[in-house]
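Late entry, evening session. Most of the bench is empty. Finally got around to the prediction I had been postponing all week. Sequence below, unchanged from the version circulated by S.P.
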Amino acid sequence: MIVITGGAGMIGSIIAWHLNTAYQRDDITIVDRITHEDQWQNLVKRQYAHYLDKDQLLPWLEGRTDIEAIIHMGAISATTERDFNQLVTTNIQYSQNLWSWCAHNRVPFFYASSAATYGDGNLGYDDASINHLRPLNGYGYSKHFFDQWVLRQISNNLPSPPSWAGFKFFNVYGPNEYHKERMASVAFHTFHQFSQTGTMKLFKGTKAGIEDGMQMRDFVYVKDAAAVVNYFLSAAISSKPAANGIYNIGTGIARSFKDLAINVMQSMQREPHITFIDMPEDLQGRYQYFTEAKMSKLVAAGYTKPFHTLEDGVRDYVQNYLIKEDKYC
């Protein structure tokens, strides 16, 4: 049995899709707390054995001996979350409890970190060293705190799962993100804004040297993110697990929001049109102007499958999902 927390979210549901299709696995327990009225549709095409509310998971795990791995994607993922107590409870303490259960029961554990841990990027985006990072928001800090806590468990030789990895996801986009509203990708928002208004609003270049729409991100297609997680899972339950550690999950190539928006519009087979607006006050001072994952550590761990280019990922997302009546993967 494989447990996926956040299994009704974008990345979690695509991990389950990948397990169903690439590995023919349906012995999956999905754990989540669905709050958006349409999020259940992320699960309609999945084959799985159990669904649990997130508060049911730890009691359900008591005494079980059939768990092959826990894939922990569940979290408060809004970068604008202001209730730090909620971030502590959900993103830190819940994760610590799952780590401890996996350590005690000798079960592999894989979890979602975030590129938000890197802050403004002045210290780079190198997953080989994370000790001096300065996140820009509470969400990023909660993920950074747990990363540091994990590494302290390892360095102090405290109990740990037999195989484990943390994944610093960069800007993930793709199908099944429709419930995320404001936190959905710019690809998603471009498709809908452009469909409804004939233009896409992007932020002006409010920082010196940044032209309008030229803030840059490492955009990674959700199918690639899921494939990496399942590579580590497959290795863990085989005789040759990949190296334990914290890994960047990106393409290693930064692209501008302008590039992304143009690709979405071109994939819709329409002439692009962009309007530039001021950045909202609640993002000023908490905004990453550039992200680009250093990917050598993941390659050294044995993962060599190519990632979708921005053009190919956007085309698949738009033409096989967003423009369809049934847009779910």
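Two things to note before I forget:
The domain at 2-172+220-252+292-308 is CATH 3.40.50.720 (Rossmann fold).
The chain is about 35% helix and 15% strand.
Will write this up properly tomorrow.
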